[in-house]
Amino acid sequence: MLEVVIPFSEYNNDDEAIAFVKHLQENQKNLKLENATIYYKFPMFKEFDEEVKAPGFLIISPVHGVIIITKENKSHRMLDDEAIDVIYEEIDSIYSLILSKLIKITGLRKKRSRNELKIPINSIIYLPNFEETLEENEGDNYFANSLIGVTQVLNAIEVNPIDEAVLTDIYSVIDGTRSMPRPVKRDVTDVEDRTKGAILSKLDLQIAKFDQKQKIAALTIIDGPQRIRGMAGSGKTIILAMKAALIHMENPDAKILYTFYTKSLYDQIKQLITRFYRMHEDHDPNWDNIHILHAWGGKTLPGVYYNTCISNGISPLNLGEAKFGASKAKMNNFEYVCYDLLSRTKGKVRNTYDYVLMDEGQDFPKTFYWLCRKLAVNDRLVWAYDELQNILDIELQETMELFENEFGDKGFSLSDLQENHPYQNNDIVLHKSYRNPMEILLAAHAVGFGLYNDKAIQILENKDHWEDLGYEVKEGKCFKGEHTVIHRSKQNSPSIISDYFTLDEIIQTHNASDADAEAKWVSDLIKEDIEKNLLPEDIMVISLDDKYARRYFEKIEMLLEKENIYVNNLLNSYSGDNFIIQGKVTLTTVYRAKGNESAAVYVIGADSLSNGRYDILSRNKLFTAFTRSKAWLSLSGVGTNFNYIIEEINKAKIHFPDLVFEYPGFEEIKTLRRELALENAEMNKKREKLLERLDELGLDRNTALNLLQGENEK
């Protein structure tokens, strides 16, 4: 099907443009445009201190090559020779800019040629209101003053089908995804093309290719709210970075806020925005107009909450005040400080930004959504979230309820607002997950939901919800007690890892006799991985056991150092800014691993969850740990008390690529969760407060325990 990319809402008022696109859509088969893409006023180019230039339309087609279309709506009475000359200059300039980008790519040049492309670039000057006879076609410039004329030109410039690899290169240049960070080079040869390192290099190249759904999400800028939903690894951060770069190009004076939850993401976000921006500009973005801010912030770290307090003449709450207020209001600390800020300003926070982009939306309380909406002009809030990243709350987000508050804000319906921009999508669902192999993703969902437990812990609410996340409900209608079969297709989990490794090679489990034996098992496998051309930084060890994580890591570090393999032990790093360090294996807890990924992930200390069969927090830790892996996953623990996890993984393997289970009732799940809540609520609340305080002090759990033990021994 012909893909239509409409970045800007001005299209809605351009009747000639709408008619043009409609004509191509209705006649795409006859015009051989079924596998083509048409962009409206994109790509954009700008030389230093010049105005932004963009074609009226640009078409990329496997049977036409690249077609630049300049559209001028003026009538023949308004188009004198001077005006026609301006059109020529404009299309020639855009032609030169596109040619200069494409000619740099080796795969697009003819063999042994420096300045000839394998594919044609043609241009059409489309004058829909020009009623007089047009000039003869000149070289690569074609004229048309009617849709019939456009059809004739398209038929005249057909070529032999263009190779898919060539098309991929063209798309990557035009939409800017060629600027995505390039895969790390590994020391592999053709002979070793089935080692882990060689396959990972191929996987990285595959992940770097954006799919069309993601591109459309990135290139759609709406004058109002927009939601982007997708699982881990679906490209949400990249989409928001592209969106920030595109807005900045189109409107350099616009103030843009990009906010996020995981502190270690800052450098990645800035790098992505810069790369995408420089694909179309010859200088860096103006960072005075793009603010990349952590959600909270403080005196030493700018943040959305802190900066908003200062700019609105409000004194930010300190940690003690936040905790006291949160306890009374029965909120978490960040939820409370945002609520307090809105209360003290009576909801009258200044519109500071033209656009607010929110990453990791699943990690934020609704009060932060309220605050970000207040900061954005005309509700231009774009938020990306993964509704499965936090299985404590996986009900479908309802924007009518989410945004309504006591400060005068009403909720809004994205579907109703869609009427304001009928040719753009304000609620985008990304079905594909590029990060996790299908085998790991299904195991994570099976274990995270407890589908193969004797009682499910959580479940998606209906068939549509499963389908939104790239699944197909093959049997059942998601009603209580029904035999249900949920299928995941290769199309929505396209990782090539499955093509080279078996299920048991992708997911391993191990029962160790003691902690020393477990550390040795993991260390031996890491050594093997590096011998198979993985880099140390391709590997992550995640401890599920908070109590003994430091001891585990010390043993693993000692064993690896004997093999000249070095580690980045995040228990010894309090800032969290350098999660991945070149030449080092990452050792981390689940809390610090969130938002990061590695090729090979070793999840250790599973025996610490021996009593976690019905504990939602334990399921959440497993789900988060599993989904950090983009290729291989290993789970280990001491003894057999955690065998319920292994049994559930094995059942997921048996039914792969399906999830087969009896659909639980929502009331049963709510009852179970309520019972668990009564038993664990106070303990969990105290534990969470303690963990938050330890993180604020820069102490890991075991250091704190050792300090307390030392105090008791005095």
Short description:
The chain has 714 residues and is α/β, with parallel strands linked by helices.
Features:
single chain; 714 residues; alpha/beta; Trna Endonuclease, Chain: A, domain 1; Rossmann fold; 3 domains; six-stranded mixed beta sheet; six-stranded parallel beta sheet; 39% helix
Blueprint (SSEs and pairs):
Layout: E1 3-5, H1 15-26, E2 37-40, E3 57-61, E4 65-71, H2 81-102, E5 121-126, E6 141-144, H3 147-156, H4 164-174, H5 196-207, H6 212-219, E7 226-230, H7 236-250, E8 256-260, H8 266-278, E9 290-294, H9 304-311, H10 319-329, H11 333-344, E10 355-358, H12 366-375, E11 381-385, H13 399-402, H14 414-417, E12 427-430, H15 438-449, H16 463-468, E13 471-475, E14 483-488, H17 497-500, H18 503-506, E15 507-512, H19 515-531, E16 539-543, H20 549-561, E17 566-569, E18 584-589, H21 590-593, E19 598-604, H22 616-626, E20 629-638, H23 643-655, E21 658-662, H24 666-697, H25 701-713
Parallel strand pairs: 1-2, 4-5, 5-6, 7-11, 7-12, 8-9, 8-10, 10-11, 15-20, 16-18, 16-19, 17-18, 19-20
Antiparallel strand pairs: 2-3, 3-4, 13-14, 14-21
